[in-house]
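Table 4 source record.
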Amino acid sequence: MALSEEQLRRIEANRNRALQLRKAKQNSASLPSSSGYTLKNISGEKTSVSVAKSSTLAAKPKNPPLGGLGSKISNNLSVQSGKGRSNNREITAKCVLISGGRFEIHASYHPGMVELFRSLSKEKVFYNAVQRSWAFHVDMYPVVAEGISKCKPPVKFDGLPLIVQNVLKEKKHYYCTGIEREICRIDSEIKNQLFPFQLEAVKFAISRKGRLLIADEMGLGKTVEALAVASYYRNEWPLLVVCPSSMKYTWVEEIENRLSFVKSNQIVVLNTGRDSLPNPSDCSVLIISYDFMVNQSEALIGRKFSVVILVCLISCIGQ
């Protein structure tokens, strides 16, 4: 099929346009990327200086003289790539408690901190070569904190919260002296119900001032252990028990059966969010659900309960 005259004209026009574009690209590629200038220095020697297209950078002249105009121009045209940027980046040393007896320092490399850590007692400083991390005995916290604050260049120290520091100061790694004498404060009826391993757990709890998580397997008597510890602190009652809704009256029975000094009319159970909190003088034990605790958190905080048992806490986390 023959092409029309209009189609032939379009083909010819497109061909000419393509040829012009190709020629323009060839001409632009053949242009020199730099222009040469010849300068004459004071001594009369000629020096070639290459000036790039960009006005910010210049190439170093070939065989520059030891002095004179050529060397001065070369120095003035050169621009350092890092000019105007600060290389001093603030380093933060974060303190992390990894166990009851140790803490770690997480930070970027800092020669001053490394020197500080190496100067400390080797018995209480632990270096992990695989993870390249430094760990310390909790007794070393004040020394480490003070040493980091004096490092040069300065280091920002992100230390442990004050409440954690206070707990560490009071912490005792061994039973306090006279613990056998102290357990006589436990209600005698519940004390006689304890197995030897449960009595050891109660002693441990007392040595930790009642702050602990009882994580025994099911059926080993976590309830009786918790009530025995609570009875030791009965002078600080009322006792607050927080548990799943289905277990509230189970705890009523446990308290009535195991703590002889608690009367039935002294145990208060709150079933709905509409129930109001009783006055501390009106009850010895208050039992609530976790839902109630969430909804009435401000009111509970205002009562400042000193003795609290959280039942099945692990299963409730995240819900």
